[in-house]
Amino acid sequence: MTKVRAMTKVLAKQRAWWARAAAKAKGKTTTKGIGNDKGKGNDEGKAKGNGKDEKGTGKARARKALARRAFSAAENDMIIKLSWQAWDWLVDRIARASADELRRFVSEPERLIKNRAKIAIVAQVPGSVYLDCGTADRPQYSRVYLGQEEIPDREKLTLVMRHALEGYFDEGLEMPKGEMLDFVLLVLGNSHARLEDMSMDEPSVWLRTHKFDIDGISVHRQKGQRVGCLGLPWRKARRQAPHLFYKTRVGEEGEWRQGCVRVWFQRKATEDRTIASMLSDLIVEETRHIFMEAFLNVDRARNSSCN
Protein backbone atom coordinates (compact mmCIF):
# COMPACT_ATOMS: atom_id res chain seq x y z
CA MET A 1 0.00 0.00 0.00
CA THR A 2 2.87 2.33 0.73
CA LYS A 3 4.24 1.89 -2.81
CA VAL A 4 0.79 2.46 -4.31
CA ARG A 5 0.31 5.66 -2.34
CA ALA A 6 3.78 6.91 -3.33
CA MET A 7 3.07 6.19 -7.01
CA THR A 8 -0.28 7.97 -6.72
CA LYS A 9 1.41 11.04 -5.30
CA VAL A 10 3.99 11.02 -8.12
CA LEU A 11 1.29 10.78 -10.77
CA ALA A 12 -0.69 13.56 -9.10
CA LYS A 13 2.37 15.80 -9.10
CA GLN A 14 2.98 15.04 -12.78
CA ARG A 15 -0.61 15.89 -13.70
CA ALA A 16 -0.41 19.10 -11.70
CA TRP A 17 2.84 20.09 -13.44
CA TRP A 18 1.39 19.47 -16.92
CA ALA A 19 -1.76 21.39 -15.98
CA ARG A 20 0.27 24.38 -14.81
CA ALA A 21 2.35 24.24 -18.03
CA ALA A 22 -0.83 24.21 -20.12
CA ALA A 23 -2.32 27.11 -18.19
CA LYS A 24 0.91 29.07 -18.50
CA ALA A 25 0.99 28.47 -22.25
CA LYS A 26 -2.55 29.81 -22.48
CA GLY A 27 -1.59 32.88 -20.49
CA LYS A 28 -3.82 31.97 -17.54
CA THR A 29 -3.07 31.59 -13.85
CA THR A 30 -3.70 28.41 -11.96
CA THR A 31 -3.72 27.01 -8.45
CA LYS A 32 -1.64 24.27 -6.98
CA GLY A 33 -4.52 21.84 -6.96
CA ILE A 34 -5.21 21.78 -10.71
CA GLY A 35 -5.27 18.26 -12.08
CA ASN A 36 -5.42 16.37 -8.77
CA ASP A 37 -7.82 13.57 -8.02
CA LYS A 38 -9.99 15.61 -5.62
CA GLY A 39 -11.35 17.95 -8.27
CA LYS A 40 -9.52 21.04 -7.02
CA GLY A 41 -8.32 23.72 -9.40
CA ASN A 42 -10.05 25.66 -12.13
CA ASP A 43 -13.78 25.91 -12.63
CA GLU A 44 -13.82 23.48 -15.54
CA GLY A 45 -12.10 20.86 -13.40
CA LYS A 46 -14.56 21.41 -10.56
CA ALA A 47 -17.50 20.98 -12.91
CA LYS A 48 -16.10 17.62 -13.94
CA GLY A 49 -15.28 16.71 -10.38
CA ASN A 50 -12.03 15.00 -11.35
CA GLY A 51 -9.58 17.83 -12.03
CA LYS A 52 -9.84 17.42 -15.81
CA ASP A 53 -11.08 20.00 -18.28
CA GLU A 54 -13.16 19.30 -21.36
CA LYS A 55 -10.09 18.57 -23.50
CA GLY A 56 -8.73 15.71 -21.42
CA THR A 57 -5.97 15.19 -18.88
CA GLY A 58 -3.47 17.82 -17.84
CA LYS A 59 -0.74 16.08 -19.86
CA ALA A 60 -2.86 16.10 -23.02
CA ARG A 61 -3.77 19.75 -22.43
CA ALA A 62 -0.12 20.68 -22.13
CA ARG A 63 0.77 18.89 -25.36
CA LYS A 64 -2.03 20.62 -27.23
CA ALA A 65 -1.06 23.96 -25.73
CA LEU A 66 2.56 23.52 -26.79
CA ALA A 67 1.44 22.43 -30.26
CA ARG A 68 -0.60 25.61 -30.57
CA ARG A 69 2.44 27.72 -29.78
CA ALA A 70 3.45 27.81 -33.44
CA PHE A 71 4.48 30.98 -35.22
CA SER A 72 1.72 33.51 -35.71
CA ALA A 73 0.96 35.05 -39.10
CA ALA A 74 2.94 38.17 -38.18
CA GLU A 75 5.90 36.08 -37.05
CA ASN A 76 5.81 34.07 -40.29
CA ASP A 77 5.77 37.30 -42.30
CA MET A 78 8.73 38.58 -40.30
CA ILE A 79 10.68 35.37 -40.92
CA ILE A 80 10.05 35.65 -44.66
CA LYS A 81 11.08 39.31 -44.71
CA LEU A 82 14.29 38.61 -42.77
CA SER A 83 15.10 35.71 -45.10
CA TRP A 84 14.72 37.93 -48.15
CA GLN A 85 16.80 40.65 -46.50
CA ALA A 86 19.58 38.14 -45.82
CA TRP A 87 19.41 36.98 -49.45
CA ASP A 88 19.48 40.56 -50.75
CA TRP A 89 22.52 41.29 -48.58
CA LEU A 90 24.35 38.24 -49.93
CA VAL A 91 23.58 39.13 -53.55
CA ASP A 92 24.70 42.70 -52.98
CA ARG A 93 27.98 41.54 -51.40
CA ILE A 94 28.71 39.14 -54.24
CA ALA A 95 28.00 41.88 -56.78
CA ARG A 96 29.88 44.79 -55.19
CA ALA A 97 31.98 43.77 -52.18
CA SER A 98 35.74 44.20 -52.17
CA ALA A 99 38.19 41.37 -51.70
CA ASP A 100 38.62 42.18 -48.00
CA GLU A 101 34.87 42.00 -47.40
CA LEU A 102 34.49 38.78 -49.38
CA ARG A 103 37.37 37.12 -47.56
CA ARG A 104 35.09 36.56 -44.55
CA PHE A 105 33.14 33.85 -46.40
CA VAL A 106 35.02 33.26 -49.70
CA SER A 107 38.32 31.37 -49.83
CA GLU A 108 39.61 33.07 -53.01
CA PRO A 109 37.87 36.46 -53.26
CA GLU A 110 40.18 37.73 -56.02
CA ARG A 111 39.13 34.88 -58.32
CA LEU A 112 35.47 35.48 -57.52
CA ILE A 113 35.78 39.18 -58.40
CA LYS A 114 37.55 38.29 -61.63
CA ASN A 115 34.79 35.83 -62.62
CA ARG A 116 31.75 37.69 -61.30
CA ALA A 117 30.08 37.76 -64.69
CA LYS A 118 30.18 33.94 -64.84
CA ILE A 119 28.48 33.33 -61.48
CA ALA A 120 25.19 31.45 -61.77
CA ILE A 121 22.38 31.34 -59.21
CA VAL A 122 20.95 27.86 -58.72
CA ALA A 123 17.56 27.45 -57.02
CA GLN A 124 16.25 24.06 -55.90
CA VAL A 125 12.53 24.20 -55.16
CA PRO A 126 10.63 21.13 -53.86
CA GLY A 127 6.99 20.61 -54.73
CA SER A 128 4.33 17.94 -54.23
CA VAL A 129 3.50 15.64 -57.14
CA TYR A 130 1.29 12.59 -57.53
CA LEU A 131 2.51 9.43 -59.18
CA ASP A 132 -0.21 7.54 -61.05
CA CYS A 133 0.72 3.88 -60.67
CA GLY A 134 -1.83 2.87 -63.31
CA THR A 135 -3.39 -0.53 -63.91
CA ALA A 136 -2.92 -3.45 -66.27
CA ASP A 137 -4.85 -1.75 -69.07
CA ARG A 138 -2.91 1.51 -68.76
CA PRO A 139 0.54 2.42 -70.11
CA GLN A 140 3.36 0.60 -68.38
CA TYR A 141 5.30 3.67 -67.30
CA SER A 142 4.08 5.93 -64.56
CA ARG A 143 3.01 9.53 -65.09
CA VAL A 144 3.55 12.49 -62.82
CA TYR A 145 0.71 14.93 -62.14
CA LEU A 146 1.42 18.40 -60.80
CA GLY A 147 -1.16 19.62 -58.30
CA GLN A 148 -4.16 17.85 -59.83
CA GLU A 149 -6.92 16.38 -57.71
CA GLU A 150 -9.21 13.36 -58.00
CA ILE A 151 -6.47 11.10 -59.36
CA PRO A 152 -7.12 7.41 -58.61
CA ASP A 153 -4.42 5.17 -57.12
CA ARG A 154 -2.09 8.09 -56.64
CA GLU A 155 1.00 8.31 -54.46
CA LYS A 156 2.16 11.67 -53.16
CA LEU A 157 5.87 12.29 -53.74
CA THR A 158 8.26 15.23 -53.87
CA LEU A 159 9.70 16.68 -57.06
CA VAL A 160 12.69 19.00 -56.65
CA MET A 161 12.83 21.51 -59.51
CA ARG A 162 16.34 22.83 -60.18
CA HIS A 163 16.60 26.23 -61.89
CA ALA A 164 19.65 28.24 -62.92
CA LEU A 165 20.01 31.97 -63.61
CA GLU A 166 23.11 32.99 -65.56
CA GLY A 167 24.42 36.47 -66.25
CA TYR A 168 22.79 38.08 -63.22
CA PHE A 169 26.13 39.61 -62.15
CA ASP A 170 27.21 40.48 -65.70
CA GLU A 171 26.86 44.27 -66.01
CA GLY A 172 27.28 44.11 -69.79
CA LEU A 173 24.32 41.75 -70.22
CA GLU A 174 20.93 43.38 -70.72
CA MET A 175 18.87 40.42 -69.50
CA PRO A 176 19.98 37.38 -67.43
CA LYS A 177 19.33 33.96 -68.92
CA GLY A 178 17.28 31.41 -67.00
CA GLU A 179 16.95 27.71 -67.65
CA MET A 180 15.63 24.53 -66.10
CA LEU A 181 18.50 22.25 -65.18
CA ASP A 182 16.61 19.09 -64.31
CA PHE A 183 14.24 17.55 -61.77
CA VAL A 184 14.85 15.18 -58.87
CA LEU A 185 11.97 12.83 -58.08
CA LEU A 186 12.10 11.52 -54.50
CA VAL A 187 10.63 8.02 -54.31
CA LEU A 188 10.30 5.63 -51.42
CA GLY A 189 13.20 3.29 -50.69
CA ASN A 190 14.82 1.49 -47.78
CA SER A 191 17.76 3.90 -47.77
CA HIS A 192 19.00 7.14 -49.31
CA ALA A 193 20.41 6.52 -52.77
CA ARG A 194 20.55 7.86 -56.31
CA LEU A 195 19.50 5.77 -59.28
CA GLU A 196 22.35 7.20 -61.36
CA ASP A 197 24.83 5.69 -58.87
CA MET A 198 23.57 2.18 -59.73
CA SER A 199 24.87 0.36 -62.80
CA MET A 200 22.49 -0.48 -65.63
CA ASP A 201 23.32 -4.19 -65.94
CA GLU A 202 22.29 -6.72 -63.33
CA PRO A 203 23.45 -7.56 -60.77
CA SER A 204 23.66 -3.82 -60.29
CA VAL A 205 26.71 -2.40 -58.50
CA TRP A 206 27.57 1.03 -57.13
CA LEU A 207 29.33 3.23 -59.68
CA ARG A 208 31.09 5.40 -57.10
CA THR A 209 32.29 5.23 -53.52
CA HIS A 210 30.26 7.39 -51.18
CA LYS A 211 29.08 7.57 -47.59
CA PHE A 212 26.65 9.56 -45.45
CA ASP A 213 25.28 9.64 -41.90
CA ILE A 214 21.59 9.25 -41.18
CA ASP A 215 20.01 9.04 -37.71
CA GLY A 216 23.41 8.47 -36.13
CA ILE A 217 24.24 5.56 -38.46
CA SER A 218 27.07 5.81 -40.98
CA VAL A 219 26.34 4.28 -44.40
CA HIS A 220 29.41 3.49 -46.53
CA ARG A 221 29.19 2.11 -50.07
CA GLN A 222 32.17 0.99 -52.08
CA LYS A 223 32.48 1.25 -55.85
CA GLY A 224 31.78 -2.17 -57.38
CA GLN A 225 29.79 -3.38 -54.37
CA ARG A 226 26.42 -4.95 -55.18
CA VAL A 227 23.38 -2.74 -54.69
CA GLY A 228 20.97 -5.51 -53.73
CA CYS A 229 17.20 -5.00 -53.98
CA LEU A 230 17.24 -1.23 -53.45
CA GLY A 231 15.37 0.50 -56.28
CA LEU A 232 14.79 -2.76 -58.15
CA PRO A 233 11.55 -1.69 -59.96
CA TRP A 234 13.12 1.59 -61.08
CA ARG A 235 16.25 -0.20 -62.29
CA LYS A 236 14.01 -2.49 -64.36
CA ALA A 237 12.13 0.48 -65.81
CA ARG A 238 15.45 2.15 -66.69
CA ARG A 239 16.63 -0.92 -68.61
CA GLN A 240 13.36 -1.07 -70.54
CA ALA A 241 13.32 2.66 -71.41
CA PRO A 242 16.82 4.14 -70.98
CA HIS A 243 15.90 7.19 -73.06
CA LEU A 244 13.65 8.35 -70.18
CA PHE A 245 16.61 8.43 -67.80
CA TYR A 246 19.60 9.48 -69.95
CA LYS A 247 20.30 12.17 -72.53
CA THR A 248 23.39 10.46 -73.90
CA ARG A 249 25.24 7.24 -73.12
CA VAL A 250 28.74 7.92 -74.35
CA GLY A 251 31.89 6.70 -72.61
CA GLU A 252 31.93 4.94 -69.27
CA GLU A 253 28.62 4.45 -67.51
CA GLY A 254 29.54 6.85 -64.73
CA GLU A 255 29.95 9.62 -67.33
CA TRP A 256 26.56 9.19 -69.01
CA ARG A 257 24.52 12.38 -69.08
CA GLN A 258 21.37 12.20 -67.00
CA GLY A 259 17.94 12.95 -68.42
CA CYS A 260 15.58 15.69 -67.32
CA VAL A 261 14.34 13.68 -64.31
CA ARG A 262 16.62 12.02 -61.76
CA VAL A 263 15.25 9.37 -59.42
CA TRP A 264 16.48 9.38 -55.84
CA PHE A 265 15.43 7.12 -52.97
CA GLN A 266 14.71 7.70 -49.30
CA ARG A 267 12.39 6.42 -46.60
CA LYS A 268 10.20 9.52 -46.59
CA ALA A 269 8.54 11.26 -49.50
CA THR A 270 9.81 14.68 -48.41
CA GLU A 271 13.20 16.37 -48.56
CA ASP A 272 15.42 15.94 -45.51
CA ARG A 273 18.96 16.98 -44.56
CA THR A 274 20.59 14.07 -46.39
CA ILE A 275 18.74 14.91 -49.61
CA ALA A 276 19.69 18.57 -49.19
CA SER A 277 23.36 17.57 -48.86
CA MET A 278 23.07 15.35 -51.95
CA LEU A 279 21.60 18.27 -53.89
CA SER A 280 24.54 20.45 -52.85
CA ASP A 281 26.96 17.70 -53.89
CA LEU A 282 25.20 17.55 -57.25
CA ILE A 283 26.05 21.20 -57.92
CA VAL A 284 29.70 20.42 -57.17
CA GLU A 285 29.60 17.41 -59.53
CA GLU A 286 28.14 19.51 -62.33
CA THR A 287 30.90 22.10 -61.94
CA ARG A 288 33.77 19.71 -61.22
CA HIS A 289 35.51 20.70 -64.46
CA ILE A 290 35.76 24.25 -63.09
CA PHE A 291 37.36 22.98 -59.90
CA MET A 292 39.73 20.73 -61.86
CA GLU A 293 40.82 23.72 -63.93
CA ALA A 294 41.40 25.71 -60.75
CA PHE A 295 43.54 22.94 -59.25
CA LEU A 296 45.57 22.69 -62.46
CA ASN A 297 46.16 26.44 -62.43
CA VAL A 298 47.35 26.25 -58.83
CA ASP A 299 49.76 23.45 -59.71
CA ARG A 300 51.08 25.40 -62.69
CA ALA A 301 51.60 28.47 -60.52
CA ARG A 302 53.48 26.42 -57.93
CA ASN A 303 55.68 24.78 -60.54
CA SER A 304 56.51 28.10 -62.18
CA SER A 305 57.38 29.66 -58.82
CA CYS A 306 59.66 26.73 -57.99
CA ASN A 307 61.43 27.08 -61.33
What would you say this structure looks like, in words?
It is built from nine helices and ten strands. It is an alpha+beta fold and 307 residues long. The chain folds into three domains: 2-68, no CATH class; 74-114; 118-271, no CATH class. The chain has a six-stranded mixed sheet, with helices on one face. A two-stranded antiparallel ribbon has the order 6-7. Helix 1 (2-25) runs parallel beside helix 3.
Quick synopsis:
The protein is α+β, with helices and mostly antiparallel strands. The chain has helices spanning 2-25, 43-48, 58-68, 73-96, 99-102, 109-114, 232-240, 273-286, 288-306; strands spanning 120-132, 143-145, 154-166, 177-188, 193-194, 210-214, 217-221, 246-248, 257-258, 261-266.
List the helices and strands and how they pair.
Layout: H1 2-25, H2 43-48, H3 58-68, H4 73-96, H5 99-102, H6 109-114, E1 120-132, E2 143-145, E3 154-166, E4 177-188, E5 193-194, E6 210-214, E7 217-221, H7 232-240, E8 246-248, E9 257-258, E10 261-266, H8 273-286, H9 288-306
Parallel strand pairs: 4-10
Antiparallel strand pairs: 1-2, 1-3, 3-4, 5-10, 6-7, 8-9
Helix pairs in contact: 1-3
Distance between the termini: 91 Å
Please provide the ordered H/E string of secondary-structure elements.
Answer: HHHHHHEEEEEEEHEEEHH
How many DSSP H or I helices?
9
Give the overall pLDDT as a whole number.
75
Relative strand content: 15-25%
Strand order of the largest sheet: 2-1-3-4-10-5
Return residue spans where pLDDT drops below 50 for at least 5 consecutive residues: 28-55, 147-152
Query: Helix- and strand-based class?
Result: alpha+beta
Global shape: globular
